[in-house]
Automatic annotation (TrEMBL):
Pfam families: DUF222, HNH. It comes from Pseudonocardia oceani. Residues 424-436 have a biased composition (Basic residues). CDD domains: HNHc. InterPro entries: DUF222, HNH, HNH_nuc. This is DUF222 domain-containing protein. Belongs to the Rv1128c/1148c/1588c/1702c/1945/3466 family. Residues 1-20, 417-436 are annotated as: Disordered. Residues 347-399 form the HNH nuclease domain.
Amino acid sequence: MFDSDVLEGPDAPEQTLGNTAPSGLFGLELEFATGSLGSLSDAELVDAVVGFERLAAWAAARQAAVLAEFSQRSGDGSVRAVSASVPLREWASDEIGMALTVSRGSAQVRLAQTRRLSGVLRPTRDLLEAGRLCWSRTRLVCDRLALLDDTLAAAVQERVLPAGPGQTWAQLDAALRRAILALDPDGAASRHRAARAERRVDVFAGEDGMATLWARLTAPDAASSYAWLTRLARGLGADDPRTLDQRRADLLAAVLTGRLVLRDPAASDTVAVVPVTPGKPLITVLVPHSTLTGADDAPCELVGYGPIPAPLAREIAADSVWRRLFTDPLTGTVLEYGRTTYRPPAALADHIRARDITCRAPGCRRPAATCELDHVIPWNPDGTTGEDNLIALCPAHHDLKEHPGWQTELGPDRALEWTTPTGHRYRTGRHDHRVR
């Protein structure tokens, strides 16, 4: 991720290789500045990495403009042909495919993307050319909006694009899906019904005697299945030498091949695998109260997956197996916690996880339900155990925070400021529960 929520002081930030507008001349400047890498400081190396990323985005945007021009010339045969006897038209994808060493199909997709980036998605291409959005995320915008008409695509783009430069690929993907659900709820529900009808299981051959078992399920079923499998794996105990991933894989294979039958642990005639915690698997679904009551079809959120259509959220909420978080669509404040089928943690921990939703490290989307709660100011000697000093962090980022040179500060608005060992600063905000 680059061009994210880098903090700025009261004055304009000092110009570095990481914030200079990309151009052909900037490419020469980068080449000159990095000619002797050993002479650069750690911070300068990070800035150079960002600079090259921005330059690559600029080059991709310029290439997209060239491809769009080539594609448009081949669109109706009315403008310049290759020669008097060879009009472009249908040969465009073949020509570009051969030139770039890609398949004809890939070239067709590339040309279609660049045409749209020169049309309704031109604001997205402008961000790419400014080096503020990488090609991977630009392609994501094209892919997610490919089936939408220009009017709807423009509306989704307008809603999502301002925050795009500061988001990872996964965060931008979630924002795009959420915006599509909000602006086209009927179409989203229809697409979900069609996709649900395609649920299936498949197997793909791999290397070294391995294979992949693949399942297409509804998002709630997939999330719940994985959570339950994880509980079973952890229930095998700390003495089991296998990693958690290996345990999950072995348990899945044992259950599906009949080597292990899951039965009541109280039964005396079987050896049962007991989950680390009892009860049904926990998944968290954020549902605006107006959507739950059917007043609107605002997008909902399955934590750990992303936006889901309102009809699917209502279907989940109707089943008392699921935990529900009801939110105020005006203020984003958590109003009530469902408690019917899952024993909750302490009220304070529950509040922190509901507030943060995911790990508070920049770019991390691990659900807060599986994260650790960390004291920003260490409890020993003088940190307090309260809402103003607790955040959700996944184990990896919890460990990173404790390393020398890393600093975190939780502000009054619960925005978390990270300072890296090279002095770069980034900020993550608490989850906004409002409908967007």
